[in-house]
Structures are given as C-alpha cells and as structure tokens.
Design a protein that fits this description.
single chain
Length: 196
C-alpha cells in the first residue's frame, strides 16, 4: 500500500520515523532534508509538502524524543506517592539514562536554537516536563524560586550527561557510576537529603 493510499499523514509520519532513526544512528548533524528523503525513498522535494522548512522537520523529530522522555518520566514517577526528593532522584536518573542512551536525539531536543519551539506543539511536550521538575523542586524547597532552582538543576543534569558521555567525568572524578554524581547534583541544588 502506498503512502497516498494510507492517508495524507502517512508520508509525514514516515519522514519523522526516518529522521528519528537517522538521529539515533548518526546524530543531529546528519538530519538534512535530502538525506531523510533519500532514506524514506522519496524525492528530495517531497518533505517540503509536509515540512516547509528544515526547522519544522527537526522540530517534529524532537517532539518524538520529548514524548518518549515524558513516557519514561511518567513511568518512573509512578503514582506520585514517593517523597518529592525520591521523585526528583527518579526523574534525574531517567533524564541521565535517556541522555546517554539517545545522544543524538537528546542533543537535538535541547537545541532550541535549531528548532521551531512554538511549531508542531514542541513547547507542548517540552515545557510540561520542565513543569514537573519545577513542581517537585517547589515541594522540596518551599520559598525558593523553584523555576530558577529547577533550571540550575536541569543544567547540572545536562552537564553530567554531556561530560559523562565524553568520558570526562570518569577521568576527572574516578567515578564509574552515575548514582553518586546524581546525588551530589541534587544535594547541591536542594540541600542534603534529610535522613529519618
């Protein structure tokens, strides 16, 4: 069955599928319209019917990454009965695992200088994830500017992911496990965890 027979969104979805696989295999720098079209088996002009600009296609691919990360975060947080600190630890672990297991997608997702963040609902998938972080931080640190603390914590997680992926943190700290680094990042932004 051809894409035309499957419906108007079939080729669009296939282009995003191909782009998602390409970013996983070769990284964000490989995401050209021409290469995605070639791998999808269509003319190099075909993507423009659904994505008038390269940025729109990149944004649609990044949205897939945010949707997958959101699913993982929801699964990790479960029913929300764990303490806010435990939930932040779970969220941090998921964030680091996703970053290290999906390096090309992760790089693309947070390159808002490359994306049309208001297009194709990208903000609708990225900002709610940050909102979860802000809410949990507010519960751990009442009275603090939760958005700023969450932003700093998020930047710390990004730094850990990037430096771990490059091998720099292992070399500098001698660490062979991310758990102590995650705990230290959380302590630095939230204060030491209280023991019962």
């Amino acid at each position: 069955m051809s894409d035309a027979e499957k419906g108007p969104g079939a080729l669009r979805d296939r282009l995003v599928d191909v782009g998602t696989r390409l970013v996983a295999e070769e990284g964000a720098q490989a995401l050209t319209l021409r290469e995605i079209a070639r791998r999808a088996g269509v003319s190099h002009g075909a993507p423009r019917r659904y994505f008038p600009t390269h940025l729109e296609l990149l944004s649609a691919i990044a949205r897939r990454g945010f949707a997958e990360l959101a699913e993982r975060v929801a699964a990790a947080l479960g029913d929300g009965t764990a303490s806010p600190r435990a939930q932040l630890t779970a969220l941090g672990r998921v964030h680091l695992e996703f970053a290290l297991g999906n390096r090309g997608m992760y790089e693309l997702m947070f390159r808002h200088d490359l994306l049309e963040s208001g297009h194709l609902g990208l903000r609708d998938t990225s900002l709610p994830l940050f909102g979860i972080l802000v809410d949990l931080v507010a519960r751990v640190r009442p009275g603090a500017d939760a958005r700023l603390v969450a932003g700093s914590l998020w930047a710390g997680l990004h730094g850990v992911a990037q430096l771990w992926g490059w091998g720099s943190l292992q070399l500098a700290t001698g660490a062979d496990d991310l758990a102590p680094l995650l705990r230290t990042v959380l302590d630095a932004h939230l204060g030491p965890e209280e023991t019962p």
